[in-house]
Amino acid sequence: MLENFYAYRLMCSVKPEDMEYYTGWLNEMAAKGLYFVKAQGELVTFERDTPAQVRYHLEPNSPFSHPEREEDYREQGWKCLGPVGRDFTLYLSKNPDAPPFHTDPVAQSYTLDRLIKIWTSWFLLLVLLIAEGIFRDLWRYHFYHFTLFDPLILCSAGYSLFKVLRLRKRLRMGIPPSDGTDWRRASLGRRLLLLAWLAYLVYLAVSLWL
Fold first, then answer.
1. 94 and 129 in contact (C-beta within 8 Å)?
2. Strand partners, 8
């Protein structure tokens, strides 16, 4: 990379839970000369350099990572770029024809099991907390004030879980992951959720103002 570079911070067009499409988006950005530096919440920092065809790979974090495995990745041309959120690690290969990170889709599907267990537990806990809040209000006040906050929270968490579950199902069927070039179509659900959250925030602001 260039020693002196301009940093660009852009909102994520695709979230990491859309694993194959997240890397497809990053591949396209690299082809435009913008290379991943770090991810911070909804923002991704890029550095500008010469456009090139590269390959990114997003791997779920595992408590059983081994130095020998990381060395194998390096020998195959994959460089670790660091974490993306709490649940993923990003790798880069400057050779677009480098050996794939995983050669067996079924074996790759097992790397998602731990992540799915964690996200499923959080989703069920969220459902229980919302249900408890509704029950408490009905028990105490015989009234529940419905807002869009609870369904939006559930939809956001459920969307992330659904994406990873769908990818694991395809991998278990022996279907390799997509190259992610159609990330725009795949990100439609996320954009709808963002619009729903924006509409809700506008509604709250108007309510408080009035």
1. no
2. 46
Per-residue pLDDT tens digits for 119-178: 999 999 999 988 888 888 777 777 766 677 888 889 889 999 999 999 999 999 999 998
Structure tokens at 81: 């770029």
| Nearest in space to 6 (alpha carbons), one of 45, 56, 42 | 45
What is the C-alpha separation between 122 and 155, in angstroms, rounded? 13
Q: How many CA atoms lie within 13 A of 64 on its CB side?
A: 3
Give the SS3 label for residue 63: coil
pLDDT at 4 over 50: no
Please state, in angstroms and rounded to a whole number, the distance separating the CA atoms of residues 58 and 15.
Answer: 11
Map tokens 């990170």 to a residue: 101
Residue 146 has a CB neighbour count (10 Å cut-off) of: 8
What is the spatial distance between Cα 129 and Cα 9, in angstroms, rounded to a whole number? 35
State the sign of the Cα–Cα–Cα–Cα dihedral 115, 152, 90, 23. Answer: positive
44 DSSP β-pair partners = 10, 39
Other beta carbons within 10 Å of 112: 19
- Containing 83, the helix (H) or strand (E) segment is strand 79-84
